[in-house]
Amino acid sequence: MGAGLVGSLLSLYLAQRGHEVTIYERRADLRKAGSVEGRSINLALSDRGWRALEGVGIGEEIRRVGIPMYRRVMHDQQGQLSFQPYGQDNQAIYSVSRAGLNRTLLDLAEQNPRIQLRFNEQCLGIDLRANHLELRDTLTGAQHTVPFQQLFGTDGAFSAVRGAMQRTDRFNYSQSYLEYGYKELTIEAGPGGEWPLEKNALHIWPRGQYLMIALPNLDGSFNCTLFFPYEGAHSFAALQTAAQVQAFFEEIFPDALPLMPDLREEFFQNPVGSLVTVRCFPWAFDDNVLLLGDASHAIVPFYGQGMNAGFEDCTVLNELLEHHGNDWSTVFEQFQRQRKPDADAMAELALYNFEEMRDRVADPRFLLQKKIESK
Ligand code: FAD
After folding, report:
1. Superfamily of domain 5-71+91-175+277-357
2. ipTM of the complex
Protein backbone atom coordinates (compact mmCIF):
# COMPACT_ATOMS: atom_id res chain seq x y z
CA MET A 1 0.00 0.00 0.00
CA GLY A 2 1.54 3.33 -1.14
CA ALA A 3 3.72 3.99 -4.18
CA GLY A 4 5.97 6.51 -2.46
CA LEU A 5 9.72 6.08 -2.26
CA VAL A 6 9.71 3.00 -0.04
CA GLY A 7 6.70 1.23 -1.58
CA SER A 8 7.97 1.54 -5.13
CA LEU A 9 11.46 0.32 -4.18
CA LEU A 10 10.03 -2.56 -2.14
CA SER A 11 7.93 -3.71 -5.09
CA LEU A 12 11.13 -4.07 -7.14
CA TYR A 13 12.76 -6.17 -4.43
CA LEU A 14 9.71 -8.43 -4.11
CA ALA A 15 9.34 -8.85 -7.88
CA GLN A 16 13.07 -9.64 -8.11
CA ARG A 17 12.36 -12.55 -5.77
CA GLY A 18 9.60 -13.83 -8.06
CA HIS A 19 6.54 -12.43 -6.25
CA GLU A 20 3.51 -10.95 -7.99
CA VAL A 21 2.96 -7.44 -6.61
CA THR A 22 0.08 -4.99 -6.90
CA ILE A 23 0.75 -1.47 -5.59
CA TYR A 24 -2.23 0.68 -4.61
CA GLU A 25 -1.62 4.43 -4.40
CA ARG A 26 -4.08 7.06 -3.25
CA ARG A 27 -2.69 9.82 -5.46
CA ALA A 28 -2.65 10.21 -9.22
CA ASP A 29 0.43 9.03 -11.10
CA LEU A 30 3.08 11.66 -10.35
CA ARG A 31 4.64 11.06 -13.78
CA LYS A 32 1.58 12.49 -15.50
CA ALA A 33 1.68 16.17 -16.49
CA GLY A 34 0.17 18.62 -14.03
CA SER A 35 0.81 16.48 -10.98
CA VAL A 36 1.43 18.65 -7.93
CA GLU A 37 3.72 15.93 -6.63
CA GLY A 38 6.10 16.70 -9.50
CA ARG A 39 7.29 19.87 -7.70
CA SER A 40 11.06 19.86 -7.33
CA ILE A 41 11.98 19.10 -3.75
CA ASN A 42 15.22 17.38 -2.98
CA LEU A 43 16.40 14.94 -0.35
CA ALA A 44 19.82 13.94 0.98
CA LEU A 45 20.64 10.39 -0.04
CA SER A 46 23.36 8.64 1.94
CA ASP A 47 25.09 5.32 2.26
CA ARG A 48 22.21 3.15 3.49
CA GLY A 49 20.01 4.57 0.73
CA TRP A 50 22.62 3.89 -1.95
CA ARG A 51 23.03 0.31 -0.83
CA ALA A 52 19.29 -0.27 -1.21
CA LEU A 53 19.19 1.31 -4.69
CA GLU A 54 22.22 -0.71 -5.78
CA GLY A 55 20.38 -3.87 -4.70
CA VAL A 56 17.91 -3.35 -7.56
CA GLY A 57 20.59 -2.12 -9.96
CA ILE A 58 19.78 1.61 -10.14
CA GLY A 59 22.54 3.12 -8.00
CA GLU A 60 24.49 4.37 -11.04
CA GLU A 61 21.43 5.81 -12.79
CA ILE A 62 20.47 7.87 -9.73
CA ARG A 63 24.07 8.87 -9.01
CA ARG A 64 24.25 10.46 -12.46
CA VAL A 65 21.43 12.88 -11.54
CA GLY A 66 22.48 13.39 -7.92
CA ILE A 67 24.73 16.22 -6.73
CA PRO A 68 27.41 15.19 -4.23
CA MET A 69 27.55 17.44 -1.18
CA TYR A 70 31.00 17.11 0.38
CA ARG A 71 30.51 19.54 3.22
CA ARG A 72 28.24 21.77 5.21
CA VAL A 73 28.62 25.47 4.55
CA MET A 74 27.38 27.60 7.44
CA HIS A 75 26.21 31.17 6.79
CA ASP A 76 26.31 33.49 9.79
CA GLN A 77 24.21 36.62 10.14
CA GLN A 78 26.99 38.79 8.68
CA GLY A 79 27.22 36.53 5.62
CA GLN A 80 30.52 34.99 6.81
CA LEU A 81 30.98 31.36 5.80
CA SER A 82 32.47 28.42 7.72
CA PHE A 83 32.82 24.82 6.61
CA GLN A 84 32.61 21.27 7.94
CA PRO A 85 33.44 18.25 5.76
CA TYR A 86 30.95 15.36 5.90
CA GLY A 87 33.72 12.78 5.85
CA GLN A 88 37.15 11.99 4.53
CA ASP A 89 38.48 11.16 1.09
CA ASN A 90 35.67 12.83 -0.81
CA GLN A 91 32.87 11.11 1.10
CA ALA A 92 29.60 12.85 0.36
CA ILE A 93 25.87 12.77 0.79
CA TYR A 94 23.89 13.42 -2.40
CA SER A 95 21.13 15.88 -3.21
CA VAL A 96 18.51 14.07 -5.32
CA SER A 97 15.08 15.13 -6.54
CA ARG A 98 12.32 13.38 -4.58
CA ALA A 99 9.97 13.37 -7.59
CA GLY A 100 12.76 12.29 -9.96
CA LEU A 101 13.71 9.38 -7.74
CA ASN A 102 10.08 8.32 -7.27
CA ARG A 103 9.53 8.56 -11.05
CA THR A 104 12.53 6.37 -11.80
CA LEU A 105 11.36 3.75 -9.29
CA LEU A 106 7.82 3.82 -10.76
CA ASP A 107 9.15 3.51 -14.32
CA LEU A 108 11.10 0.43 -13.30
CA ALA A 109 8.08 -1.01 -11.49
CA GLU A 110 5.90 -0.41 -14.55
CA GLN A 111 8.39 -2.18 -16.82
CA ASN A 112 8.37 -5.23 -14.57
CA PRO A 113 5.71 -7.76 -15.67
CA ARG A 114 5.30 -8.96 -12.07
CA ILE A 115 4.23 -5.50 -10.81
CA GLN A 116 0.83 -3.87 -11.33
CA LEU A 117 0.41 -0.18 -10.46
CA ARG A 118 -3.03 1.07 -9.38
CA PHE A 119 -3.23 4.82 -8.89
CA ASN A 120 -6.16 6.79 -7.40
CA GLU A 121 -6.89 3.92 -5.02
CA GLN A 122 -7.16 4.93 -1.40
CA CYS A 123 -7.02 2.38 1.38
CA LEU A 124 -9.95 2.99 3.71
CA GLY A 125 -9.48 0.02 5.97
CA ILE A 126 -8.39 -3.57 6.31
CA ASP A 127 -10.14 -6.66 7.51
CA LEU A 128 -7.19 -8.26 9.24
CA ARG A 129 -8.99 -11.54 9.92
CA ALA A 130 -10.33 -12.06 6.41
CA ASN A 131 -7.26 -10.53 4.66
CA HIS A 132 -9.30 -8.02 2.68
CA LEU A 133 -8.43 -4.46 1.74
CA GLU A 134 -11.13 -1.83 1.52
CA LEU A 135 -10.34 0.59 -1.28
CA ARG A 136 -11.94 3.71 -2.69
CA ASP A 137 -11.46 4.86 -6.26
CA THR A 138 -10.65 8.54 -5.66
CA LEU A 139 -11.89 9.54 -9.13
CA THR A 140 -15.35 7.96 -8.97
CA GLY A 141 -15.78 7.47 -5.23
CA ALA A 142 -16.64 3.79 -5.82
CA GLN A 143 -15.58 1.42 -3.04
CA HIS A 144 -14.48 -2.17 -3.44
CA THR A 145 -12.61 -4.86 -1.52
CA VAL A 146 -9.66 -6.95 -2.66
CA PRO A 147 -8.07 -9.96 -0.99
CA PHE A 148 -4.36 -10.10 -0.14
CA GLN A 149 -1.84 -12.73 0.91
CA GLN A 150 0.85 -10.44 2.28
CA LEU A 151 0.23 -6.74 2.71
CA PHE A 152 3.13 -4.27 3.05
CA GLY A 153 2.11 -0.95 4.60
CA THR A 154 4.34 1.65 2.95
CA ASP A 155 1.69 4.36 3.09
CA GLY A 156 3.68 6.90 5.05
CA ALA A 157 3.48 8.67 8.39
CA PHE A 158 -0.33 8.67 8.48
CA SER A 159 -0.62 5.06 7.33
CA ALA A 160 -4.09 3.56 6.94
CA VAL A 161 -2.56 0.08 7.25
CA ARG A 162 -1.10 1.05 10.62
CA GLY A 163 -4.46 2.59 11.50
CA ALA A 164 -6.06 -0.86 11.18
CA MET A 165 -3.30 -2.47 13.25
CA GLN A 166 -3.71 0.20 15.95
CA ARG A 167 -7.12 -1.29 16.72
CA THR A 168 -5.60 -4.69 17.55
CA ASP A 169 -4.76 -5.74 21.10
CA ARG A 170 -1.50 -4.50 22.68
CA PHE A 171 -0.46 -2.35 19.75
CA ASN A 172 1.80 0.45 21.04
CA TYR A 173 1.62 3.77 19.29
CA SER A 174 2.81 7.32 19.85
CA GLN A 175 3.13 10.42 17.73
CA SER A 176 4.76 13.66 18.81
CA TYR A 177 4.96 16.92 16.95
CA LEU A 178 7.66 19.59 17.22
CA GLU A 179 6.59 23.15 17.98
CA TYR A 180 8.25 23.93 14.66
CA GLY A 181 6.96 23.71 11.12
CA TYR A 182 8.78 23.94 7.79
CA LYS A 183 8.33 25.93 4.61
CA GLU A 184 9.92 25.21 1.23
CA LEU A 185 11.45 28.26 -0.53
CA THR A 186 13.71 28.74 -3.56
CA ILE A 187 17.12 30.23 -4.27
CA GLU A 188 17.09 31.01 -7.99
CA ALA A 189 19.77 29.87 -10.44
CA GLY A 190 22.16 32.58 -11.65
CA PRO A 191 21.51 34.26 -15.06
CA GLY A 192 23.53 31.63 -16.99
CA GLY A 193 22.10 28.73 -14.98
CA GLU A 194 25.07 28.75 -12.64
CA TRP A 195 24.78 27.96 -8.92
CA PRO A 196 24.78 31.21 -6.91
CA LEU A 197 26.19 29.39 -3.85
CA GLU A 198 28.80 26.63 -3.61
CA LYS A 199 27.21 23.80 -5.60
CA ASN A 200 28.62 20.72 -3.88
CA ALA A 201 27.52 21.57 -0.36
CA LEU A 202 24.57 21.57 1.99
CA HIS A 203 24.08 25.16 3.12
CA ILE A 204 22.90 25.97 6.63
CA TRP A 205 21.87 29.26 8.19
CA PRO A 206 21.86 28.32 11.91
CA ARG A 207 20.12 30.92 14.06
CA GLY A 208 19.91 29.37 17.53
CA GLN A 209 16.18 28.70 17.84
CA TYR A 210 15.59 28.02 14.16
CA LEU A 211 17.41 27.48 10.87
CA MET A 212 17.23 27.47 7.11
CA ILE A 213 18.95 24.92 4.87
CA ALA A 214 19.49 24.74 1.09
CA LEU A 215 20.27 21.76 -1.16
CA PRO A 216 21.41 22.16 -4.78
CA ASN A 217 19.33 21.24 -7.85
CA LEU A 218 20.71 20.27 -11.26
CA ASP A 219 19.32 23.45 -12.89
CA GLY A 220 21.47 25.80 -10.77
CA SER A 221 18.76 26.58 -8.20
CA PHE A 222 18.60 25.48 -4.56
CA ASN A 223 15.62 24.23 -2.57
CA CYS A 224 15.58 25.97 0.79
CA THR A 225 13.69 24.79 3.84
CA LEU A 226 12.98 27.14 6.69
CA PHE A 227 12.45 25.29 9.99
CA PHE A 228 10.71 27.83 12.15
CA PRO A 229 8.54 28.00 15.31
CA TYR A 230 4.77 28.14 14.85
CA GLU A 231 4.39 30.73 17.62
CA GLY A 232 6.54 33.43 19.27
CA ALA A 233 8.42 36.62 18.41
CA HIS A 234 10.26 34.96 15.52
CA SER A 235 7.67 32.58 14.11
CA PHE A 236 5.28 31.84 11.25
CA ALA A 237 2.54 33.49 13.30
CA ALA A 238 4.59 36.71 13.53
CA LEU A 239 5.19 37.00 9.77
CA GLN A 240 1.82 37.99 8.33
CA THR A 241 2.69 40.52 5.62
CA ALA A 242 5.15 40.68 2.72
CA ALA A 243 6.83 43.67 4.42
CA GLN A 244 7.35 41.66 7.61
CA VAL A 245 8.86 38.75 5.65
CA GLN A 246 11.16 41.12 3.76
CA ALA A 247 12.33 42.85 6.95
CA PHE A 248 12.86 39.52 8.72
CA PHE A 249 14.98 38.06 5.91
CA GLU A 250 16.95 41.32 5.58
CA GLU A 251 17.91 41.10 9.21
CA ILE A 252 18.31 37.32 9.69
CA PHE A 253 19.30 35.88 6.31
CA PRO A 254 20.86 38.93 4.56
CA ASP A 255 23.10 36.97 2.18
CA ALA A 256 20.25 34.67 1.05
CA LEU A 257 17.60 37.34 0.50
CA PRO A 258 19.02 38.77 -2.79
CA LEU A 259 19.03 35.23 -4.20
CA MET A 260 15.32 34.69 -3.45
CA PRO A 261 13.37 36.96 -5.82
CA ASP A 262 10.12 35.00 -5.33
CA LEU A 263 10.35 34.95 -1.55
CA ARG A 264 7.33 37.14 -0.83
CA GLU A 265 5.03 35.12 -3.10
CA GLU A 266 6.42 31.73 -2.06
CA PHE A 267 6.24 32.52 1.63
CA PHE A 268 2.48 32.96 1.44
CA GLN A 269 1.74 30.38 -1.26
CA ASN A 270 3.70 27.45 0.12
CA PRO A 271 2.14 25.58 3.02
CA VAL A 272 3.71 25.10 6.45
CA GLY A 273 4.45 21.41 6.98
CA SER A 274 4.45 19.83 10.43
CA LEU A 275 7.23 17.67 11.86
CA VAL A 276 6.21 14.42 13.50
CA THR A 277 7.93 11.45 15.11
CA VAL A 278 5.90 8.22 14.99
CA ARG A 279 6.83 5.23 17.10
CA CYS A 280 4.87 1.99 17.14
CA PHE A 281 5.19 -1.72 17.74
CA PRO A 282 4.60 -4.42 16.59
CA TRP A 283 5.18 -3.72 12.94
CA ALA A 284 3.85 -7.11 11.85
CA PHE A 285 0.41 -8.69 12.12
CA ASP A 286 0.73 -12.49 12.00
CA ASP A 287 2.42 -13.51 8.76
CA ASN A 288 0.12 -11.27 6.70
CA VAL A 289 0.94 -7.62 7.28
CA LEU A 290 4.19 -5.67 7.70
CA LEU A 291 4.79 -1.94 8.09
CA LEU A 292 7.88 -0.35 6.54
CA GLY A 293 9.25 3.17 6.02
CA ASP A 294 7.48 6.14 7.57
CA ALA A 295 4.42 3.98 8.32
CA SER A 296 6.43 2.31 11.08
CA HIS A 297 9.06 4.94 11.94
CA ALA A 298 8.43 8.50 10.74
CA ILE A 299 11.21 10.77 12.02
CA VAL A 300 11.98 14.49 11.87
CA PRO A 301 14.16 15.39 8.88
CA PHE A 302 17.23 16.87 10.62
CA TYR A 303 19.39 13.81 10.22
CA GLY A 304 18.36 13.40 6.56
CA GLN A 305 17.63 9.73 7.19
CA GLY A 306 13.87 9.12 6.89
CA MET A 307 13.93 7.86 3.32
CA ASN A 308 17.37 6.31 3.78
CA ALA A 309 16.10 4.30 6.76
CA GLY A 310 13.00 3.25 4.78
CA PHE A 311 15.24 2.13 1.92
CA GLU A 312 17.36 0.20 4.41
CA ASP A 313 14.17 -1.57 5.53
CA CYS A 314 13.99 -2.96 1.97
CA THR A 315 17.61 -4.16 2.10
CA VAL A 316 17.08 -5.88 5.45
CA LEU A 317 13.79 -7.49 4.41
CA ASN A 318 15.43 -8.77 1.24
CA GLU A 319 18.30 -10.29 3.22
CA LEU A 320 15.84 -12.05 5.52
CA LEU A 321 13.87 -13.39 2.55
CA GLU A 322 17.13 -14.63 1.06
CA HIS A 323 17.81 -16.48 4.29
CA HIS A 324 14.36 -17.80 5.20
CA GLY A 325 12.63 -18.04 1.84
CA ASN A 326 8.87 -17.49 2.06
CA ASP A 327 8.65 -18.32 5.75
CA TRP A 328 6.84 -14.99 6.23
CA SER A 329 6.22 -15.53 9.89
CA THR A 330 9.95 -15.84 10.67
CA VAL A 331 10.88 -13.08 8.24
CA PHE A 332 8.36 -10.58 9.67
CA GLU A 333 9.26 -11.43 13.28
CA GLN A 334 13.01 -11.12 12.70
CA PHE A 335 12.54 -7.98 10.65
CA GLN A 336 10.72 -6.12 13.39
CA ARG A 337 13.04 -7.34 16.16
CA GLN A 338 16.11 -6.33 14.17
CA ARG A 339 14.87 -2.99 12.81
CA LYS A 340 12.98 -1.52 15.75
CA PRO A 341 16.07 -0.61 17.87
CA ASP A 342 17.74 0.91 14.81
CA ALA A 343 14.63 2.93 13.96
CA ASP A 344 14.37 4.17 17.55
CA ALA A 345 18.04 5.19 17.51
CA MET A 346 17.49 7.05 14.24
CA ALA A 347 14.51 8.91 15.72
CA GLU A 348 16.62 10.06 18.69
CA LEU A 349 19.54 11.10 16.49
CA ALA A 350 17.19 13.07 14.25
CA LEU A 351 15.79 15.01 17.20
CA TYR A 352 19.29 15.58 18.60
CA ASN A 353 20.55 16.80 15.26
CA PHE A 354 17.89 19.52 15.18
CA GLU A 355 19.68 21.20 18.07
CA GLU A 356 23.04 20.62 16.46
CA MET A 357 22.01 22.11 13.13
CA ARG A 358 20.20 25.14 14.42
CA ASP A 359 22.67 25.97 17.16
CA ARG A 360 25.82 23.97 17.75
CA VAL A 361 27.15 24.08 14.17
CA ALA A 362 27.49 27.83 14.66
CA ASP A 363 29.40 27.45 17.92
CA PRO A 364 33.14 28.20 17.40
CA ARG A 365 34.08 25.50 19.95
CA PHE A 366 32.16 22.96 17.88
CA LEU A 367 33.84 24.11 14.68
CA LEU A 368 37.25 23.73 16.28
CA GLN A 369 36.37 20.27 17.56
CA LYS A 370 35.18 19.24 14.07
CA LYS A 371 38.43 20.55 12.60
CA ILE A 372 40.44 18.41 15.00
CA GLU A 373 38.23 15.37 14.32
CA SER A 374 38.53 15.71 10.56
CA LYS A 375 42.34 15.91 10.86
P1 FAD B 1 5.85 8.50 1.77
O2 FAD B 1 6.93 9.12 0.97
O3 FAD B 1 5.01 9.38 2.62
O4 FAD B 1 4.91 7.70 0.76
C5 FAD B 1 3.69 7.14 1.18
C6 FAD B 1 2.81 6.92 -0.03
O7 FAD B 1 1.60 6.28 0.39
C8 FAD B 1 2.39 8.23 -0.70
O9 FAD B 1 2.57 8.14 -2.09
C10 FAD B 1 0.92 8.40 -0.30
O11 FAD B 1 0.17 9.08 -1.27
C12 FAD B 1 0.49 6.94 -0.17
N13 FAD B 1 -0.65 6.79 0.73
C14 FAD B 1 -0.84 7.39 1.93
N15 FAD B 1 -2.00 6.99 2.48
C16 FAD B 1 -2.58 6.15 1.60
C17 FAD B 1 -3.81 5.41 1.61
N18 FAD B 1 -4.68 5.52 2.62
N19 FAD B 1 -4.08 4.63 0.55
C20 FAD B 1 -3.21 4.52 -0.50
N21 FAD B 1 -2.02 5.20 -0.55
C22 FAD B 1 -1.72 6.00 0.49
N23 FAD B 1 14.61 11.64 4.24
C24 FAD B 1 15.89 11.42 3.85
O25 FAD B 1 16.35 10.27 3.84
N26 FAD B 1 16.70 12.46 3.47
C27 FAD B 1 16.26 13.75 3.50
O28 FAD B 1 17.02 14.67 3.15
C29 FAD B 1 14.92 14.01 3.91
N30 FAD B 1 14.46 15.28 3.96
C31 FAD B 1 13.18 15.50 4.37
C32 FAD B 1 12.72 16.81 4.44
C33 FAD B 1 11.44 17.09 4.87
C34 FAD B 1 10.99 18.51 4.96
C35 FAD B 1 10.59 16.01 5.24
C36 FAD B 1 9.20 16.29 5.73
C37 FAD B 1 11.03 14.70 5.17
C38 FAD B 1 12.33 14.43 4.73
N39 FAD B 1 12.83 13.12 4.66
C40 FAD B 1 14.11 12.89 4.27
C41 FAD B 1 11.97 11.98 5.04
C42 FAD B 1 11.36 11.31 3.82
O43 FAD B 1 10.60 12.25 3.09
C44 FAD B 1 10.46 10.16 4.26
O45 FAD B 1 11.12 9.37 5.21
C46 FAD B 1 10.09 9.30 3.06
O47 FAD B 1 9.32 10.04 2.14
C48 FAD B 1 9.30 8.07 3.53
O49 FAD B 1 8.91 7.31 2.42
P50 FAD B 1 7.63 6.38 2.51
O51 FAD B 1 7.54 5.76 1.15
O52 FAD B 1 7.71 5.53 3.71
O53 FAD B 1 6.41 7.37 2.74
Report:
1. FAD/NAD(P)-binding domain (3.50.50.60)
2. 0.99
